[in-house]
């Protein structure tokens, strides 16, 4: 996961390749939607929050990523945590949950979605890059995510 976080860091330092451009476009769409308390599953280095004043709790499995996140975004609180396990937060604690570019790397995403729904009282914003790194989110998977989380799918 450490290398994944460092790949994410490249998104913000090398904007011209196709993958990085898509992530930037996604974040440009997400940032204006954010209000109140935010939990970010797979926050990586938190580079995308620079220049904002959002109340962010960031979770990642990489200690290196969390160390970088603490340097990049001093307004946030960051923890090394496995989002596929039950999380130590109260029900409906956060206004918004972000799961961006993370579900692509998790084999069993049901617990992640279930926890996101449990700890969030408002919106859950999840993004997946269709077909990235060999993952293909078929319509059955997307339908299950919508049903479990009561989410709608938006395409960028």
- Spatial order of the strands forming the largest sheet: 3-2-1-4-5
Helix fraction bin: 25-40%
Approximate shape:
globular
Question: By helix and strand content, what is the structural category?
Answer: alpha/beta
Q: How many helices does DSSP assign? A: 5
Distance between the termini: 25 Å
What do these coordinates show?
The protein is of the alpha/beta class and 156 residues long. Helix 1 (2-13) packs across helix 2 (18-30). The chain is built from five helices and five strands; from the N terminus they run H-H-E-E-H-E-E-H-E-H. Strand 4, helix 4 and strand 5 (120-127) form a beta-alpha-beta unit. The protein has helices at 2-13, 18-30, 63-72, 110-119, 139-149, and strands at residues 37-41, 55-60, 77-80, 94-100, 120-127. The model is unreliable at 137-148 (pLDDT under 50). It has a five-stranded parallel sheet with strand order 3-2-1-4-5, with helices on both faces. 36% of the residues lie in helices and 19% in strands.
Gist?
By secondary structure, the protein is α/β, with parallel strands linked by helices.
List keywords for this structure.
single chain; 156 residues; alpha/beta; five-stranded parallel β-sheet; 5 helices; 5 strands; 36% helix; globular
Could you give the topology of this structure?
Layout: H1 2-13, H2 18-30, E1 37-41, E2 55-60, H3 63-72, E3 77-80, E4 94-100, H4 110-119, E5 120-127, H5 139-149
Parallel strand pairs: 1-2, 1-4, 2-3, 4-5
Helix pairs in contact: 1-2
């Amino acid at each position: 996961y450490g290398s994944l976080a460092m790949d994410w860091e490249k998104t913000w330092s090398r904007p011209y390749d196709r993958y990085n451009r898509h992530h930037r476009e996604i974040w440009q769409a997400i940032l204006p939607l954010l209000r109140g308390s935010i939990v970010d599953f797979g926050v990586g280095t938190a580079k995308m929050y620079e220049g904002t004043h959002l109340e962010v709790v960031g979770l990642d499995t990489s200690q290196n990523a969390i160390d970088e996140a603490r340097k990049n975004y001093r307004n946030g609180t960051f923890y090394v945590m496995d989002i596929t396990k039950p999380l130590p937060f109260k029900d409906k604690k956060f206004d918004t949950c972000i799961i961006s570019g993370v579900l692509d790397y998790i084999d069993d995403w049901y617990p992640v979605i279930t926890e996101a729904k449990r700890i969030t009282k408002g919106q859950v914003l999840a993004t997946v890059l269709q077909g990235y790194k060999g993952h293909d989110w078929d319509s059955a998977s997307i339908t299950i995510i919508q049903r479990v989380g009561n989410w709608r799918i938006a395409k960028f």
